[in-house]
Model the fold of this input.
Amino acid sequence: KTNEYEGATECTGCSAGRAATEGTAVDCDVCPEGTYAPKQSETCENCEAGTYSTEESGSCDTCEAGKRSRVRWSNCTECRPGKFAIAQSGSCTACSSGSYSSTWASSACVDCPR
Done:
């Protein structure tokens, strides 16, 4: 919680994407990329694997299928050919024997023709 004015009698909560990290901070600190803080938070929390955020975010966004992210990332990266990822994935998975993906950002592998 913050107190914008010297001598104020009450504190106000930080807006989303900002946190009063010192507990009784005068100002709210901006949450860095890969973290978030809902309205009136005291700390910036890390985005989980499969999610990401830009600076001053109130929540983390989900990586779409074919992309992945690790903990505290500011964006999602595409899976390379031969791998795939479902939505909100922390890693790309290699196609199993007998299947393939020939494009970047695949959400599934296709069976090889017989």
In short: The first strand starts at residue 18 and ends at 19. The chain is about 0% helix and 20% strand. The two ends are 64 Å apart (CA to CA).
